[in-house]
Amino acid sequence: MDDDLIMPGLHPLLATRWSPATFDPAHEVEAAQAELLVEAARWAPSAGNSQPWAFIVGRRGDDTHRRLVRHLAASSGRWAPSAGILVANLAHRYVEGTDWEYSEFAQYDLGQAVAHMTIQAQALGLSARQFRAFDRDALAAEFDVPGHWEVTTMSAFGRGPARENPEPARERRPIGELLWTDSQAAQKTVHSP
Ligand SMILES: Cc1cc2nc3c(=O)[nH]c(=O)nc-3n(C[C@H](O)[C@H](O)[C@H](O)COP(=O)(O)O)c2cc1C
User: Fold this and answer.
1) Peptide bond into 20 cis (omega under 30)
2) Where is this region: Disordered (predicted)?
3) pTM for this model (two decimals)
């Protein structure tokens, strides 16, 4: 099988998901849909059920959206504002007032919650693109995010272009590279003399 072909049998929500870099500026995400995305995150698994996540959700046209857009980088500023909603994804990193980790899996769990959001979006007919291209510190200051929380990533959700020609093109490492074997481990081990 060609490395970039998707294996038959992969669930359509996973097989058809991709991250567009353009969104329809006329399309609106309904408030109920935005709420469902957060509901999808709410039901994600997390270490010890610690649920170390929070989300700042702005719908295009509202004040939160305007405040989020202010802190986009030049690159994301070209496409993210036209998505129906922008979400800042926050991880609960530390116990307040200490340098103790709230959970050693906080970022792992946040990522998993965001993955749930993207698949729920796909089920709603919405596309998602997660991104790092924004000013984390400025966004944290804008929304008074305290030091024990981390503004980790953002996501844009909206109506993307037709699926036939994903842009940018989607590429993946072959499945054989993902499966860790003893021989791969031996190759990757750095032997000292
Ligand atoms: C944590 C994270 C950070 C990302 N940051 C950016 C970004 O700053 N700008 C961007 O255009 N895409 C960003 N992406 C999107 C990835 O480039 C995209 O998911 C990847 O190329 C795979 O494409 P696909 O989602 O269409 O399969 C990010 C994705 C993740 C998960």
Assistant:
1) no
2) 157-193
3) 0.93
